[in-house]
């Protein structure tokens, strides 16, 4: 019996559904939080079984033990909690973005580095979103976001790009959420 994952862009949450039949493979369930929300099917993560590890695939997060990872995540959570979505501090946003790229060890595209530098200099995030929107859209792995063009909407989209979706811990029966 497969477990399918679906992402809800409206509430930025990923849900897991147990399909007791393969006939649910091409169906999309209603969102458990709000039946009006549209869900998108995701490719679930999985583990490879075996001893071999490709060093080319290793990243900075692989080397962290659980205690260090928890400290880092708690620090990021504190930084995010201090952000005001309606009136964001550009320098605080840039600090958080730099911290995320440092932790992952990934190289950011030049456009993103330029945008972070300009945020650190105190430039308006809304103007930067307008200027760099196309470059940022290419980095968006969550699919299409809503059309909210307000500053708060843009900050929410930026936060989603940085942190990804929330994961609902429950396992839902797909038959209860499909027509």
Task: Write up what this structure looks like.
- It is a single chain.
- This protein has 179 residues and is of the alpha+beta class.
- The chain has two domains: 3-45 and 166-176; 63-163, no CATH class.
- It contains five helices and four strands.
- It has helices at residues 66-81, 90-104, 110-120, 125-139, 151-163, and strands spanning 3-8, 13-18, 40-42, 166-173.
- Strands 3-1-2-4 form a four-stranded mixed sheet, with no helix packed on it.
- The longest helix is centred in the middle third of the chain and has 16 residues, at 66-81.
- The protein is elongated.
- Residues 140-146 have low confidence and may be disordered.
What letter string, H or E per element, gives the SSE order? EEEHHHHHE
Number of domains: 2
Total helix count? 5
Q: Name the shape in a single word.
A: elongated
Roughly how many Å apart are the termini? Answer: 19 Å
The average pLDDT score comes to: 74
Cα-atom radius of gyration = 19 Å
What is the percent of helical residues? 25-40%
**Low-pLDDT runs:** 140-146
The strands making up the biggest β-sheet line up spatially as: 3-1-2-4
Content-based structural category: alpha+beta
Total E-strand runs: 4
**Share of β-strand residues:** 5-15%
Task: Note the quaternary state here.
Answer: single chain
Features:
179 residues, alpha+beta, four-stranded mixed β-sheet, 5 helices, 13% strand
Can I get a quick summary?
With 179 residues, this protein is an alpha+beta fold. Helix content is 39%, strand content 13%.
What is this structure's SSE topology?
Layout: E1 3-8, E2 13-18, E3 40-42, H1 66-81, H2 90-104, H3 110-120, H4 125-139, H5 151-163, E4 166-173
Parallel strand pairs: 2-4
Antiparallel strand pairs: 1-2, 1-3
């Amino acid at each position: 019996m497969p477990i399918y994952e679906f992402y809800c862009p409206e509430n930025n949450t990923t849900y897991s559904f147990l399909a007791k039949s393969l006939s649910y493979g091409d169906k999309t369930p209603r969102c458990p939080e709000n039946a009006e929300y549209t869900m998108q099917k995701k490719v679930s993560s999985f583990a490879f079984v075996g001893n071999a590890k490709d060093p080319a695939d290793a990243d900075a997060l692989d080397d962290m033990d659980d205690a260090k990872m928890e400290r880092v995540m708690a620090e990021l959570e504190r930084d995010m909690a201090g952000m005001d979505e309606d009136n964001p501090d550009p320098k605080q946003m840039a600090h958080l973005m730099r911290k995320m790229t440092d932790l992952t060890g990934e190289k950011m595209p030049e456009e993103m580095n330029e945008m972070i530098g300009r945020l650190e200099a105190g430039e308006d995030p809304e103007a930067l979103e307008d200027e760099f929107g196309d470059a940022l859209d290419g980095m968006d792995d969550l699919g299409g976001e809503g059309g909210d063009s307000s500053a708060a909407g843009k900050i929410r989209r930026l936060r989603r790009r940085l942190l990804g979706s929330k994961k609902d811990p429950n396992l839902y029966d797909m038959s209860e959420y499909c027509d």
